[in-house]
Structure formats: C-alpha cells, structure tokens
Amino acid sequence: MGDRCRLITILGIGGIGKTTLSVKLGRTIEEQFDYILWRNLREAPPIGDILGELILFLSQQKETNLSTTIGSQINKLLEYLSSYRCLLILDNLESIFQDGTHTGNYRPGYEDYGELFRQIGQIAHQSCLLLTSREKPADLINLEGNNSPVRTLHLEGLGRSAQQLFATKGLAISSDHCRYLIDLYHGNPLALNLVSARI
User: Fold this and answer.
1) Which end of the chain, N or C, is surrounded by fewer C-beta atoms within 10 Å?
2) What kind and span of H or E run contains 71?
3) For 90-125, what is each residue's pLDDT tens digit?
4) Beta bridge partners of 9
C-alpha cells in the first residue's frame, strides 16, 4: 500500500486465508482511507448492482438517478475514487469467472467487471481496489509490473509456522509428522486446522 497501488489481487487456493488477510489489512490501514467498502461476490451480483451500491454509498445517498450505462457508472465511481481515498475490497472474484476453466475469463454477462478493473488500474486516482480470488483476471496480466500500480500477491501455504497452529490445539507433533502434514495439505491453513481437530 505504500506504493499507492490502485489495484491489488490476492490469489490463492480456497481456505488459504485470502478473505482473512483482506479483512485484517483493512482494519490495519483503515486510518489511511476515508472509506473502506467490502463486498462479497460469491453470489455473482451483476456489475450494475455493485456499481450502484458503491456510488450510492460514496455519494452519501445523493446519487439516486444513476445512468443506465455501465460506462457512465464506472466514470462516476472513478470520480468518487479521485475525490476520496477509498479502499474497495471485492471478495471471491472467482465467482464471476467461467466455471472449470481456471483462466480468469468472465462468465457471459460479467465482462464489464473487466472494464471496471482495467480503468481502476489505468486511470490515476487516490484509491485502491483489492480483489481476492482463486484465479487471476486474465485482462489484468498486461497491467501488472514491479513499478506498476497494479500488483498480485500469491498466498502460499503456512510452511513451518503450521507447527504453531498445532501447538494452539495442544498437539505435540514431531517435526517429521508436521512436515508430512504441511506437504500433504500444501500448507493450507483451513485444511491443517480441520485435520488438527481430528488428530
């Protein structure tokens, strides 16, 4: 966040802690923002619904006659993202992607989300959009870079810190068994937590 990124994607397998990390991050840096808005995309809401909610909130309920075109709504949202310092968190982005392809391509009717993300990544403003997903949006790959305001964070498994998880459960597991479980479950905190409850 110190680099003033406009768009950050947190990628990782299910249960790795993407949502937990995004919530903790929001709480840790909330004083740096005028507004923090979190929306779950698990039910795959149409982009018009999301844009309408965000604009209505940021306008303090004053923008009631929104344009019906998505392009105009994106432009209006960008005006607010330039006027205020906002952290927008969209969780479970993979819900709007085509099932089973793992290519980060949008489901039919959801392509306008890609336009929103591209514009947020390309147009100068003072806000940040944080996405959590199991898949990377395909259209953001060209916008990313070490010096770019568009970045991706890949969450890996717990590694040796999983021993602390087992210790909090009161389990005394040898380091060999711990490594075996970490490797078996790829360090996934949710899986390791579930398995530790059964040991």
Assistant:
1) C
2) helix 70-83
3) 999 999 999 876 678 899 999 999 999 999 999 999
4) 131, 152
